[in-house]
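Suppose a colleague, Dr. K., hands you the sequence of a protein chain of 557 amino acids and asks what its three-dimensional shape might be. Before reaching for any lab equipment, you can write down a predicted structure in token form. Begin with the sequence itself:
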Amino acid sequence: MHNYEIAEYFNLLAKLMDIHGENAFKIKSYSNAAYTLDRLNDPLEAMSPAQIAGIRGIGDALAQKIVDLLATKKLQILEDYIEKTPAGILEMLKIKGLGPKKIITIWKELGIESIGELLYACEENRLINYKGFGAKTQQSIQDALNYYLQNQGSFLYQQVQDIVAQIENALSIQFPNNQHQVSGHYKRQMETLDFLDIVTTTSHTVLSDWLASKGFILDTTNDYLSCKGPDQFELRWHIVTESQFYIQDFSLACSPAFWLAWQQLPNFNHQIPFPSELAIFEQVQIPFIPSAQREDPSIIQQAKTKGLNPSIQTSDIKGIIHSHSTWSDGLHTIEQMAVAAKAQGLEYLVISDHSKSAFYANGLQEDRIRAQHKEIDALNKKLAPFVIFKSIESDILNDGSLDYPDEILELFDIVIASVHSNLKMTEEKAMMRLMNAIENPYTSILGHATGRLLLSRKGYPINHEAIIKACAANDVVIELNAHPRRLDMDWRYIGQAMQEDVLISINPDAHAIDGFDDCAYGVLVAQKAGLTAAQNLSSFSLAEMMEFISYQQAKRG
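The predicted structure, expressed as tokens, is then:
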């Protein structure tokens, strides 16, 4: 178990004890333990019980619970609280804006024990007269509830990868003589999925019997065989003959608009058997279009007349931009991260720890910046020719200014400007903050432009076209934050950025070494927009990156 998983157990325990009105001292001890464990650099699973007990704020009693949790993946005291808590109350803890104090009021004073009841109560304005609520709070809770309910059974692409691997492995073992293809939204590399399409030549009877034997409840009311697992994620099985296999896969791996346009092509005949996916393109004499790019039908004409440029690949990433170390809220030291990046064949690392406004993330005050830069200078001598660049993720404040004076911003090679606070904004407010930050001559990269968290938070509204034009005018790069919960900016706007000659930068926002791997998710969605390596900052070689930094420094005047 990772440290953060263990911390989540104690965090949930503290919240449930609070809801049940337990001793405040005990609640605080578990809450503090969660905070400590979440920020612990060394893995708990590698420690002895004595070492765990020696962690400040843990002690023998908590250490024993951690040892038991590592051994059994169960925390008995938490299990006891879960057992006496209604399922709907537990679910409320997943809703943004609902903490233990508000849930106590909802449960004990309003008698509400489910998400549906709570949504209805919001619609009936039943919360506004209770302490800690009010009209604005009630509306925020209602919006969060609607968003939550709309995304039940939805998963991030990253989360579905493991499911796909298990399915592909099971099918190859169970039905080795049949054809199978995971298609649809997954093959199109969509950032989130509500269901998984699988094309198979296994017979309906055989497949149904097998799925039933695995405990799936089958639904045959559609033109596909549907089943759901305990996570409520739906699998849709499209059972076809061998002659139909490739055209069925192709039709599912296109957006509805693309598929409609394809069917209208003069030479297309879907009734003939296709021996491969490529043969579908050969029939209409159009170069192959990857499934990730089968979105806007206009790409069909583009492929026919101009051809498509090769999209970026994970192997094109030459350096890690936007990473956090133990100087702020990262899990690894700068040296550990640099050594790991170098071992992976990368040429440079851009350390972008949090700025001083991010006090919750141990953001850097001015004196610590200078100390960090001394460490980086020493490491650059030690690790040459590998280079660590000095950067900061500077908070965009409420007025759009960055949270350091110019003489401090001058110390950095790259400044990433990001919004982290007061995310509930109108478009007018958000645009004011972002535009001011973009026009700041010290801003090199605009970080996660909308602040969204996929399936959790929509992000603040912005005018993407205006933002892209402003970045073009001010030579500011737009980040494609590759964390699978962000993938922000949205790939749907990358094409416009490319037309305006605005560089994109696929950045992992890594808070640990394994976070480097998130670059792959950024690449997957960038491929949907046809982003090339030449248009991605993190694909720049070390020499090109140094030229970029020189240009950015000259821009400051």
